[in-house]
Amino acid sequence: MITFQFDENLDAEEFARACESEGMADVWRFPRQHRGEPDEAVIPYFMGRRKTVLTCDLGFAEEHLAYIPNANPGIVIIGLPADYPGTMNPVVARKIVGLFKGRFPRWHHTPCTNSMLKITDADARVWYVRDRLLRPDGGVYISYSETNWQSKLIKTLKQNSKRFKIR
């Protein structure tokens, strides 16, 4: 079973309860003692834990690479569809996560360790961080319309999970 740590922008009780009620993931809500703190202060706290961070803040990782170690619990970023007219919120994020889980039944058995995984309603992108830089050699774009995209995603995430060992 995978364990997720919600970022503050995604911290909705109803979303967390819905995730846990499926019995495939443990969800940790955003810690009260860190509410209102900037990402630079929160990211080191998250990276010291063994819980994959779930966020809808597109800049959470890319703007703060200096705080993400090579070996990390992973970050899943929920992104809006390109043509979506509104803004991201927990309700929209929950729908995108639901679509992803429906298309990728093995999601809760697939490690996100050492990966930054961005999911939308149509595609996924995977990178990893090495020496405080986003590594383009590890960047993989995956369209859900591709044949066998799930296998490609599993392979990429497993490769990243083996790159560095969390101590």
What level of helicity do the residues show? 25-40%
Instruction: Give the strand order of the largest sheet, numbering strands 1, 2, ... along the chain.
Output: 2-1-3-4-5-6-7
C-alpha end-to-end distance:
20 Å
Main sheet?
Answer: 7 strands, mixed
Q: Residue ranges: pLDDT <50 for 5 or more in a row?
A: none
Q: Would you tell me the overall average pLDDT?
A: 89
H/E element sequence: EHEHEHEHEEEH
Number of domains in the coordinates? 1
- Structural class estimated from helices and strands: alpha/beta
**Can you tell me the overall shape?**
globular
Describe the secondary-structure layout.
Layout: E1 2-6, H1 13-21, E2 25-28, H2 39-47, E3 52-55, H3 59-62, E4 75-78, H4 90-103, E5 116-119, E6 123-130, E7 133-143, H5 149-163
What tags apply to this protein structure?
167 residues; Rossmann fold; globular; alpha/beta
How would you describe what is shown here?
A hairpin with a 2-residue loop joins strand 6 (123-130) and strand 7 (133-143). It is built from five helices and seven strands. The protein is of the alpha/beta class and 167 residues long. The chain has one domain (2-163): Rossmann fold (3-Layer(aba) Sandwich), CATH 3.40.50.
What's the short story on this structure?
The protein has helices spanning 13-21, 39-47, 59-62, 90-103, 149-163, and strands at 2-6, 25-28, 52-55, 75-78, 116-119, 123-130, 133-143. The protein has 167 residues and is of the alpha/beta class. The protein has a single domain (2-163), classed as Rossmann fold (3-Layer(aba) Sandwich), CATH 3.40.50.
